């Protein structure tokens, strides 16, 4: 059935409600219900039951279930590393270094910590969830101590994760995109993807903007107000804000009578990060048909691996390693380990629920064919000169409406690649515009899973994070659009 313009209304309503009311759960629920009301021909009972079944069906996707499990288990890991005094040990080391920096130049430590957080996020290009999570977890206590608002940390975590994953595509992102390009009949998808990186302006601008903002110390929009608030009152969040994670997780009391050792935090987090490529290789190993050497087989396997399986296995391995370490040191007994795991999972249930709702509205939009409607609505009046800029804008709108960059890539590459062929446009530029648009829309959307994880890891209010990041993302998006117009008309 064709839903036409109606297919665009539910996600937009959900986004407006989320920004207006700051109640993201209610906004998403209403968006899902409204979607199913349209699907079920405006029958109230059928629409309501459809919404319930739609949420149940989220778990039919193994990838969704793994991501929700990952979101819950992260809570256990956060509590573990605090209970073991690992976080305290790491802060003590950084504080000693920052004191030396501060002696040399006042205000220098504040800049350096933000740079360190950004670089950490960029280096963890293997998986966006792990990148955002590690940046938020590692640097939140230090940001708090230096009086840097939580919104700034969430912005750094968000703007360094997805852009680096798309620009250094030796991860599940790269594998997914190559698979989509293959289905469009592109013979050398890897070559096209690598060639498109230099034209993928938005992620490059987003990363550059983070460094410009840090070094210039010039914020604008709601972020400027957040910085002013923290400087004047010491408040890390707005008075009426609700952090994505409760204080029970971010300020869990450490065990008394044990020394604070940084490795009790660094080792579990390092295990989680290192296990990601290993798991990608393991899950994709059997999918590789031909290889010339072990290294060639391994690199292909990473490309074929399952991202959702890999993050879940990584966090479970990290938890097990932490447990063994703490047992050996006498920090915790098996009974304590179970209690803390359950405590961590229970504290992160709101995040898991938010993930469930974000996936459910994404599924509803798929059913309504929101993305396909938006893409098709522009086909008639496009010219080759306008194609890159228009593809970027459409991709952005789909990602903004559905909250998923991967879903946007799946919808848009199936449309933009044939359009590039029909119009005789440069395929690498059009692919770059599609991918960049997906990231840009994702950065602007309150229903984006990567933004939700960034808010959670930073213990920031989610809507505050979206509002403070939005002006920076819009500036990057506007510059990108202008650059695609210039390229289109010059080509």
UniProtKB/TrEMBL annotation:
It is found in: Cell membrane. The lineage of its organism: Bacteria, Pseudomonadati, Bacteroidota, Flavobacteriia, Flavobacteriales. It holds the Pfam family Na_H_antiporter. It is a multi-pass membrane protein. This is Sodium:solute symporter. Keywords: Cell membrane, Membrane, Transmembrane, Transmembrane helix. Residues 189-489 form the Na+/H+ antiporter NhaC-like C-terminal domain. Coiled coil: none annotated. InterPro entries: Na/H_Antiport_NhaC-like_C (IPR018461). GO terms for cellular component: plasma membrane. Its main location: membrane. It comes from Polaribacter glomeratus.
């Amino acid at each position: 059935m064709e839903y036409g313009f109606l297919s665009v209304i539910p996600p937009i309503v959900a986004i407006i409600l989320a920004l207006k009311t700051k109640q993201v759960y209610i906004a998403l629920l209403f968006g899902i219900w409204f979607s199913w009301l349209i699907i079920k021909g405006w029958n109230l009972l059928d629409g309501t039951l459809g919404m319930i079944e739609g949420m149940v069906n989220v778990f039919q996707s193994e990838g969704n279930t793994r991501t929700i499990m990952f979101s819950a288990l992260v809570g256990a890991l956060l509590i573990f590393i605090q209970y073991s005094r690992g976080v305290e040990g790491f802060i003590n080391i950084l504080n000693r270094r920052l004191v030396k920096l501060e002696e040399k130049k006042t205000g220098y430590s504040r800049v350096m910590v933000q740079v360190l957080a950004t670089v950490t996020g960029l280096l963890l290009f293997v998986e966006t969830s792990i990148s955002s999570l590690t940046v938020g977890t590692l640097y939140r206590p230090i940001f708090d101590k230096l009086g840097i608002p939580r919104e700034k940390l969430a912005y750094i975590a968000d703007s360094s994760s997805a852009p680096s994953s798309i620009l250094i595509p030796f991860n599940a992102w790269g594998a997914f995109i190559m698979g989509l390009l293959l289905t469009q009949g592109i013979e050398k998808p890897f070559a096209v993807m690598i060639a498109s990186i230099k034209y993928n302006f938005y992620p490059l601008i987003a990363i550059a903007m983070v460094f410009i903002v840090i070094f210039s110390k010039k914020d604008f929009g709601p972020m400027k107000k957040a910085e002013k608030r923290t400087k004047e009152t010491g408040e890390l969040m707005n008075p009426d804000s609700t952090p994505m994670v409760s204080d029970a997780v971010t300020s869990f009391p450490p065990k008394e009578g044990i020394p604070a050792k940084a490795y009790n935090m660094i080792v579990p987090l390092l295990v989680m990060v290192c296990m990601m490529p290993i798991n990608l290789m393991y899950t994709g190993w059997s999918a590789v048909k031909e290889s010339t050497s072990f290294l060639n087989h391994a690199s292909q396997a990473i490309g074929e691996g399952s991202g959702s399986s890999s993050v879940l296995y990584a966090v479970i391995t990290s938890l097990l390693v932490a447990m063994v370490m703490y047992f050996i040191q006498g920090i915790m007994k098996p009974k304590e380990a179970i209690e803390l795991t359950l405590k961590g999972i229970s504290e992160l249930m709101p995040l898991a629920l938010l993930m469930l709702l974000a996936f459910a509205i994404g599924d509803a939009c798929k059913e309504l064919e929101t993305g396909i409607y938006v893409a098709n609505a522009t086909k008639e009046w496009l010219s080759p000169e306008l194609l890159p800029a228009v593809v970027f804008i459409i991709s952005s709108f789909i990602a903004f409406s559905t909250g998923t960059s991967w879903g946007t890539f799946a919808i848009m590459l199936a449309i933009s690649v044939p359009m590039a062929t029909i119009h005789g446009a440069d395929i690498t530029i059009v692919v770059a515009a599609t991918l960049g648009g997906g990231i840009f829309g994702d950065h602007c959307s309150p229903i984006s899973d990567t933004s939700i994880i960034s808010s959670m890891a930073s213990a920031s209010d989610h809507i505050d994070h979206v509002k403070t990041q939005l002006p920076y993302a819009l500036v990057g998006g506007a510059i990108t659009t202008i650059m695609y117009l210039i390229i289109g008309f010059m080509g």
